[in-house]
Amino acid sequence: MTTTRPAVASDAELDHWRTVAERVAATLGEDALERDRRGDDPTVELDLLRESGLVDLLHPAEFGGGGGHWQSALLAVRILSRTDASVAQVLAYHYINSSNIGFAAPEADRADWYRRTTADHWLWGDSVNPVDPDLLLTPADGGFRLNGRKRFSTGASSGDVVLAAARIEGGDRDGETVFVVLDHDRAGIHYLGDWDALGQRLSASGSVDFVDVAVDPADILGSLGDGPFQNLITPGIQLAFGNIYLGIAEGALEQGLEIARARKNSWFLSGADLYRNDPFVQRVVGEFSSGIAAVEALADRAARRFDETVSLGDAVTAEQRGHIEIEIAKLKVVSTDLGVEVANRIFEITGSSSAKASVGLDLFWRNVRTHTLHDPVDYKKLEVGAWELNGELQPLSLYT
């Protein structure tokens, strides 16, 4: 039996996880650029997430977790994105992946999944990418064999377990699509290490091959159903994206301000003694700071409303699920625009010397430009417009 808890996070809870995340972000920021250039899988960095408690933040306290809310988890993702958006992405996907215990697992199985997850502080990677052909599960030896390839498997190569979506072919469950949870070193799983994007280089998002992987019935977490509650997973991950983009914008502005404040001269036509006193520099900073404040407010509101919706459990209606999807689509639109704009134009207040590779100011743009291509933001604009004009909601999917 689970204990009753408030539907939304308290100020004390948010303050606690803010402090934890800021401490972790400061550590990650010490060598983020150097690690990005190496492009290694983030194994050491994930140990930092485990030790801090961030990995277990969302899991129920009665099963050894942090007992936190989505608003706290997404605030942590945002804060980490200020210094290392790659690791923040892995953490965000872990929250989404492991939350399928609550969204997809049969109620009788959830306690066991939570206890196993928290006992060893599992980091959940994924191999779910819906635009790839389905992985196939075929009945064999009282269980199944899993075969296929998935690209963009974030966190899979460096996490403790891999959440994979696969379609059963044959047997009593023919045609059913299920989530399976497999330990990282399961025989037949091959991590290809082919992630070579210009940004999010440490997100461990390479392809995974599954070759005759033995899957026990106990490895099946649950089915991918069409109920509104189970399909809250999509607005959840889009909400995480919005916080990643917002955090990148915050981090870019923070580093830009440090550079601008440290400059000892000014543009010769400005009439100002220092760059920080140039009215054009101040104008850009004012524009960015105001935009960030507005998107922060929307992100916090959306996260709080998401917690309220999740707290309804199976009582969530299609209309309620649709409303939170629209709220989060709005965040996706403005956070994308803000993140790309700030990371691109921050150089306007820092000058040509800030374009040196050693400064690393490009890291923010490379990260946000890469991840904002995950799914077309124009379709999120259409979702919002169709709702506002005609009251139309999009069909349930892993993207809408």
Automatic annotation (TrEMBL):
The keyword Oxidoreductase belongs to this UniProt entry's keyword annotation: yes
Originating organism: Agromyces atrinae
UniProt keyword list: Oxidoreductase
GO biological process: L-leucine catabolic process
InterPro entries (UniProt xref): Acyl-CoA_DH_C, Acyl-CoA_Oxase/DH_mid-dom_sf, AcylCo_DH-like_C, AcylCoA_DH/ox_N, AcylCoA_DH/ox_N_sf, AcylCoA_DH/oxidase_NM_dom_sf
Superkingdom assignment: Bacteria
Acyl-CoA dehydrogenase C-terminal domain span: 240-375
Protein name: Acyl-CoA dehydrogenase
Gene3D superfamilies associated with the record: Acyl-CoA dehydrogenase/oxidase, N-terminal domain, Butyryl-CoA Dehydrogenase, subunit A, domain 2, Butyryl-CoA Dehydrogenase, subunit A, domain 3
GO MF entries: 3-methylbutanoyl-CoA dehydrogenase activity; flavin adenine dinucleotide binding
Domain Acyl-CoA dehydrogenase/oxidase N-terminal, chain residue ranges per copy: 18-115
